[in-house]
Write the structure tokens for this entry.
Amino acid sequence: MTAVMIDLTGHELTAEERELLAHPAVGGVILFSRNFHDIDQLVELVRQTRAAARNPLIIAVDHEGGRVQRFKDGFSKIPAMADILLKASSDEQALLWAQEMGWLMATEVLAMDIDISFAPVLDINGISEVIGNRAFATEATQIIPVARAFIRGMHQAGMKATGKHFPGHGSVRADSHIEIPIDERSWNEILETDLPPFIELASSLDAMMPAHVIYPAVDDKPAGFSHYWLQDILRAQLQFKGIIFSDDLGMAGATVAGSMTDRAYAALDAGCDMVLVCNDRAGAIEVIEAIEPRLAQLNKQQERCYQQLAKPAGMTLSVLHNHPRWHAAQAILSEMASKIASESTDS
């Protein structure tokens, strides 16, 4: 298993992308909305992508639900995670809904022969607009049981779960896609407010994605480039045994680490197992070429990535759409949509 996850530009593979997929450094592909036209096209794109790859691939997508759901037509409309607790009439119903939404999201993505959706979000819904209702709740104590149920549903479907954005992006206002967020709070504030979901759920998660956020009271580097955050806290203190993905190295929050090559080296040296380079083809090529001399070392470190994250064979959509659990999940979606529409009318 190798170290770089790249993106694709459209509905079909280009000649350049076939060449990149044949490179020994490429071990993953992440898909976006621009890669989806319809279900048949997506299935064929995934088939071609796997066929063109030199290495076994982890194919991923951000398909959380709400405003971060890459595939729409033909897929269930997964609600924003915050709506689960907000619309449920009891804690028991919220846990059931979370589990079934995790299962539903995962089974539909797996039916496309895609390995993982980068979910769930474990950030608190604090002051960060880029997180907002992507988070389950505003308090860690509320997040933990519902997120655990969502993870359980993903696992029941056969999908591995990725917690993000360690150690928490919800308490800083700046968006790391376009700015360099700096969270000035003390270690104790971070520990009490943002870290509990990651602490409590570390043993249930198969992968983790750190935030491009600087927490100067702890380290002067963003978490995804910090040996202290990834090795001393995540690995040693939290005893996390899973895979660590970098967040996209093309984001503004990653620029503090220097050039694309510098960012990739910094992430890998800090403890990331795989780095994502998205929406910057020149940057992806730079990283792939720069990493090539280190492949022998990296392959030894990352043989476990594919084995830990690759999915089992999933149901096809036609089988899934006849599954009693899929129909029960549709009933939950209808109930949630009805409550959302009713509250919207009342306001």
User: Anything to note?
Assistant: The first strand starts at residue 4 and ends at 7.
